[in-house]
Amino acid sequence: MAQTVKTKFTVVGVIIAAVIIGLVVWNQQKKSGSDELVIGISPSFAKPLQVAAEEARQQGVNVKLVEFSDWNTPNITLNHGDIDANFFQHQPFLDNAKKETDFKIKAFAKGAATHVGLYSKKINSLDELKDGAKVVVPNDPVNQGRALLLLQQAKLVTLKDPNNHLSSLKDIAVNPKKLQFVEVEGPQTARAIDDVDLAFGYPHYLRLAKTADPEQALLFDSNKDNRYAILFAVHEDYQDKNDKLKKFVEIYQNSPRVKEALDADFGAKLWFPGWK
């Protein structure tokens, strides 16, 4: 059974403490008038953001990117006030995090949205998937729902509510192949592909982990709405002094060099502008 978000927050307490200690210097700098913009990010999104940060620096905006390896600490750190913004989650994930906690976080702007796929190193088509096959899905409520929608698109399962993007394993109505589901943290789906028959995956994490060709999914999702666009998120009382974050977002959304980095990192056909 997947852990609840609250349970996960308890488990990563030591990590959080270490991160907060490491960020205290930046927090003091902010309080003393530093104009540095500190953004917490996932490593899989780093390269396009680094390009945007380089261009922002040329325009007088000093940006510090802080990488987090999990999907819990960035919101805890943002809510604590030790970073100005984070960039790792889409709106459904943020909505669920706020429902499970007392976080005071809101979306500031949208970034790229990416397709997701079903990947395998053991079969060459979904028709080859055997009864009782092991399938990796994320263990958080939101991304698990996204994985199940894709498995439904592949006609491997049928959900009680075919349109519910928050479905969980208990909401599977029909599982004709009696698939066995392995639940892992979202960022670890890319590494789990070696141990199972089929894995739900994010192209950018696969490219980072180098475990599979992100463009060689057995099936990609057909979704093109911006529900899953990655957000620039901020604390609810965030004040964008001198429009630093606004300028950075504008660079990210409009720079040809950032677009080139997105094409290289995700694959030109595997992402689309979530802000349009």
UniProtKB/TrEMBL annotation:
UniProt GO cellular component terms: membrane
Keyword Signal: yes
Keywords attached to this entry: Lipoprotein, Membrane, Palmitate, Signal, Transmembrane, Transmembrane helix
Residues annotated as transmembrane: 9-26
Location relative to the cell: Membrane
PANTHER family noted in UniProt: D-METHIONINE-BINDING LIPOPROTEIN METQ, D-METHIONINE-BINDING LIPOPROTEIN METQ-RELATED
Protein name: Methionine transporter
Taxonomic source organism: Acinetobacter variabilis
